[in-house]
Amino acid sequence: MVSGLINANPVIYEKKQRRVRRASSVGDDEHAIEPIDQIEFEARFVRVFIFLTFLNHIRDIKDPEHPYSLEELKVITEEAVEVDDDNSYVRVTFTPTVEHCSMATVIGLCLRVKLMRSLPQRYKVDIRVAPGTHATESAVNKQLNDKERVAAALENPNLVDMVDECLAPSYA
Amino acid sequence: MEDGNMVLKEIQTLEGHSDRVWSLAWNPASGTSNNPPVLASCSGDKTVRIWEQTPSNGLWNCKAVLDETHTRTVRSCAWSPCGKLLATSSFDATTAIWENIGGDFECVSTLEGHENEVKSVSWNASGSLLATCSRDKTVWIWEVMPGNEFECVSVLQGHTQDVKMVKWHPTMDVLFSCSYDNTVKFKKMQNNVEFLVELQVWAEDGTGDWHCAQTLVVTLLLYGHLLLMLKETEWLPVDVGGMQSSNDLASWIHLPREYVSLIKFYLALLVTKRDEVIDLGFTSMRTHNSFSCSVWHHLCTLSGYHDRTIFTVHWSREGIIASGAADDALRFFVESNDGLVDGPSYKLLLKREKAHNMDINSVQWGPTDTRLLASTSDDGTIKIWELATLT
């Protein structure tokens, strides 16, 4: 896109250094792990790994209008992703760069597709804009979580191209 | 029905779709002694599958795959009341009509007109009308014409957002639609006329004299080209031109078989010359009682039983409400005898967590009185359940 950008001059933030971080649901009771319980330990290890993998997946998604990642634009932060592994639940809260961002639904769709492709099927995913960060917050949230609309959008070749471009591995 | 003595048995998991299964429909003419139960399912894999129970072993098998017609997700399917036609609506903006010809399903008509995704399709009780709805915010009503022709007779534009579902009233020509705009609307069809018909059946007594052998009063409903007859509380279509069996008509109005052809003759006259019905000896005629639009009010809300979005509810013949949701669970409710002071209330009868591995999109009770239930899911399967009483 050359002209007509929704946000022509976004603020660019530094990428965070990649570090190992435990999922909160696991970290809370880490001292309870008995070393002898090898199977349980491995299960937890796998869960932490899954969490880190998909956090890395989504923060590298490219913004639909700029050659920066969602992390660099602070659309997505580490805190934006909540995981309740015991209940197979993930919630992603993203922050559009401007209040009237018409790209919010596209960003949300990218997040959903990325999670659909990388998470086990049992996960339930809710995606929302951060409270107070978008002019039509409830409308955007409703659309992003209407699976009939998401399914229809993913049969639209133009939208799929746009999503695939944002998810292209060159930004990983 | 008491709590605790009901159990939900999983009968079979039907596998074959390669994407989420959105919806299903039981064939209403199946499940009788001669016809094993049949259901249709539709999917994100762009196909419709027809499943039939094998009487000998009770197992369900896929009898047909309806493909290469829809080019996108098939969102909804519905059998005509006679069970001969299947309507399927798709995100490709079309609705296809399939006819069962000796076990093969042939696409006999494609209904075009919606601008984009068609989300739901429904037949009225007599099978004379079809309703479809779309993301284009409209509801279309199609009249079924002879020769598998469908003519759009009305485009309803009352909604401000996607119309998610349409459903006809089970006996009256009243259509309900619900929308992404958070409203439910309904539309009454008005061009139907009800007749009370008195038929005098004359017979020759063997000596050359004729006398009135019987006087019959039947209630008929003329609806466009279609004639319906009231049998007890149900409107049944009268196919004057090509009635399948004379027994049908005879059993409806309890008259000797030899009179059937005479009745058919009168009915044919009635259809072809309906402006002159009085002259033909029909004694009275009155307008069909109007459906009252003001009687609908909120009865009660069942909340707190599902953890995520509820996608489907269906009421059984004996009053059991089944619900399915994005929490992968099934719930069953029955009317509770408690608290009748404030009107009826409902209580949880039974629940099944992890009924499917993913979201449950549709639940439908079977066409007969057996407590069979089918459910469809994002996990690509259909499950057949039986709600049984513990003995």
Secondary structure layout plus pairing:
The complex is a heterodimer of chains A (172) and B (391).
Chain A: H1 24-27, H2 38-59, E1 81-84, E2 89-94, H3 104-118, E3 124-129, H4 137-144, H5 147-153, H6 157-166
Parallel strand pairs in A: 2-3
Antiparallel strand pairs in A: 1-2
Helix pairs in contact in A: 2-3, 3-4, 3-6
Chain B: E1 6-14, E2 21-26, E3 38-43, E4 48-53, E5 60-66, E6 74-79, E7 85-90, E8 95-101, E9 104-111, E10 118-123, E11 129-134, E12 139-145, E13 149-156, E14 163-168, E15 174-179, E16 184-188, E17 192-204, E18 210-223, E19 226-231, E20 234-238, H1 246-253, H2 260-272, E21 284-286, E22 310-315, E23 321-325, E24 330-336, E25 345-352, E26 360-365, E27 372-377, E28 382-389
Antiparallel strand pairs in B: 1-28, 2-3, 3-4, 4-5, 6-7, 7-8, 8-9, 10-11, 11-12, 12-13, 14-15, 15-16, 17-18, 17-21, 18-19, 19-20, 22-23, 23-24, 24-25, 26-27, 27-28
| Total domains of chain A | 1
Q: List low-pLDDT spans of chain B.
A: 240-259, 271-294
User: From the helix content, strand content and strand pairing of chain A, which structural class follows?
Assistant: mainly alpha
> Overall mean pLDDT score of chain A?
77
How big is the Rg of chain A? 17 Å
Could you state the oligomeric state of the chains shown? Answer: heterodimer
Q: Name the helix and strand elements of chain B from N-terminus to C-terminus, one letter apiece.
A: EEEEEEEEEEEEEEEEEEEEHHEEEEEEEE
Low-confidence stretches of chain A: 19-36
Task: Give the helix level of chain A as a range of percent.
Answer: 25-40%
Query: Level of helix content of chain B?
Result: under 10%
Structural class of chain B: mainly beta
Output the CATH class name of chain A: Alpha Beta
Instruction: Give the largest interface.
Output: A-B, 12 and 20 residues
The CATH architecture classification of chain A is 2-Layer Sandwich
Total helices of chain A: the number is 6
Q: Strand sequence of the main sheet of chain A, in spatial order?
A: 1-2-3
Number of helices of chain B: 2
- Count of extended strands of chain A: 3
Shape of chain B: globular
CATH-assigned homologous superfamily of chain A: Fe-S cluster assembly (FSCA)
Strand coverage percent of chain A:
5-15%
Organism (chain B): Salix dunnii
Protein name (chain B): Probable cytosolic iron-sulfur protein assembly protein CIAO1 homolog
Keywords (chain B): Repeat, WD repeat
WD repeats (chain B): 14-52, 67-99, 111-144, 156-197, 353-391
